[in-house]
Amino acid sequence: MSTTATQSMIQPYVFFGGRCEEAIEFYQQALGAQLQTMMRFGESPDPTPEGMLPAGFEEKIMHSALQIGQSIIMLSDGCEEGGTPAGFSLSITLPTEQEARKAFEALSAGGQVRMPMCQTFWSPCFGMVQDQFGIDWMVTIP
């Protein structure tokens, strides 16, 4: 199978268990994210299969996309309330220590610092934080 970089792309798709709209607003403030698209379950041209969503989820977000710098992250409320994403981290690389520290501080609001910002052998400024939605972030500068 032959593909080129322009044909293949991996994008994170994160589920927020009913808190997606709150997460979008948080990432817009914390990281300057730009909303590219958003559709609620009730706006879908196809009806949602019976029993797939909890009552009241019609106004929850079925699909959205945020641009953060040059990257796109997709977000959804998913099909159930609650739960915490696990088994991955999102890594954000920023051009300066000042920008990295600002993003780290913003992401840590209501969250938990896993590794304070510090110098490492691979970066002059690196830190790990879990945000208020349970999403793990690695913040670094090259």
End-to-end separation? 33 Å
Helical region count?
2
The residue-averaged pLDDT reads 92
Percentage of residues in strands: 25-35%
Strand order of the largest sheet: 1-4-3-2
Q: What is the helix/strand order?
A: EHEEEEHEEE
Total count of strands: 8
Helix percent band: 10-25%
Residue runs with pLDDT of under 50 for 5 or more positions: none
Q: Radius of gyration, rounded?
A: 17 Å
Tell me the overall shape: elongated
Oligomer: single chain
Helix-strand category: alpha/beta
Verbal overview:
- The chain has helices at 20-31, 97-108, and strands spanning 13-15, 34-40, 61-68, 71-76, 89-93, 112-118, 126-130, 136-140.
- 17% of the residues lie in helices and 32% in strands.
- It is of the alpha/beta class and 142 residues long.
- The two termini are 33 Å apart.
Descriptive keywords:
2 helices; alpha/beta; four-stranded mixed beta sheet; 142 residues
Quick structural summary:
The chain is of the alpha/beta class and 142 residues long. It is 17% helix and 32% strand.
Tell me the layout of helices and strands.
Layout: E1 13-15, H1 20-31, E2 34-40, E3 61-68, E4 71-76, E5 89-93, H2 97-108, E6 112-118, E7 126-130, E8 136-140
Parallel strand pairs: 1-4, 5-8
Antiparallel strand pairs: 2-3, 3-4, 6-7, 7-8
Helix pairs in contact: 1-2
